[in-house]
Amino acid sequence: MALVGGDVVAVLELGEPCGVLVLCEIDGQTLGLSGLSAERAGLWPESGMGVSVDGAEVPALDLGVLLAQFYRTAKDGAP
């Protein structure tokens, strides 16, 4: 959880903490993503599993699934 602009925001830890919090909106809720390290930004062609970046297949990140998992974990109190 994080306090952002006076609002409490759910935070999903996707990797080791790096001091950067990426905020996005999903289903009308603000969500923080922690543990991300952006190498570069841009548009890449779709592939069967996500996108193709310089010939490497990068899987899609389904934030809806991650958010549902976060809420289940928070509700059950389990890691």
What can you tell me about this protein's structure?
- The chain is α+β, with helices and mostly antiparallel strands.
- The protein has one domain (2-37, 45-76).
- It has one helix at 63-76; strands at residues 2-4, 7-13, 21-26, 29-34, 50-53, 56-59.
- A 4-stranded mixed β-sheet has the order 1-2-4-3.
- The radius of gyration is 14 Å and the shape is globular.
- The two termini are 14 Å apart.
Task: Describe the secondary structure blueprint for this structure.
Elements: E1 2-4, E2 7-13, E3 21-26, E4 29-34, E5 50-53, E6 56-59, H1 63-76
Parallel strand pairs: 2-4
Antiparallel strand pairs: 1-2, 3-4, 5-6
List keywords for this structure.
single chain, 79 residues, alpha+beta, two-stranded antiparallel sheet
The gist of it:
It is built from one helix and six strands.
Structural class: alpha+beta
Q: What's the domain count?
A: 1
Q: Biggest sheet, open or closed, and with what strands and sense? A: 4 strands, mixed
What fraction strand? 35-45%
The total of beta strands comes to: 6
Mean pLDDT: 84
**How are the strands of the biggest sheet laid out side by side?**
1-2-4-3
Distance between the termini: 14 Å
Helix percentage = 10-25%
Q: pLDDT under 50 segments (min length 5)?
A: none
